[in-house]
Amino acid sequence: MAAILSVSGSPSATSRTARLLRHLDDRLRHQGHDVTPLDVRTLPADALLGADFRHPAVVAATALFEQVDGVVIGTPIYKAAYSGLLKSLLDLLPQYALTGKTVLPLATGGSTAHVLAIDYALRPVLSSMGAAHIVPGWFTLDKDITVGDDGTLTVAPGAAEALVKVTDGFSVALGGRTTVLAPTG
Question: Rounded to two decimals, what is the model's pTM?
Answer without folding.
Answer: 0.94
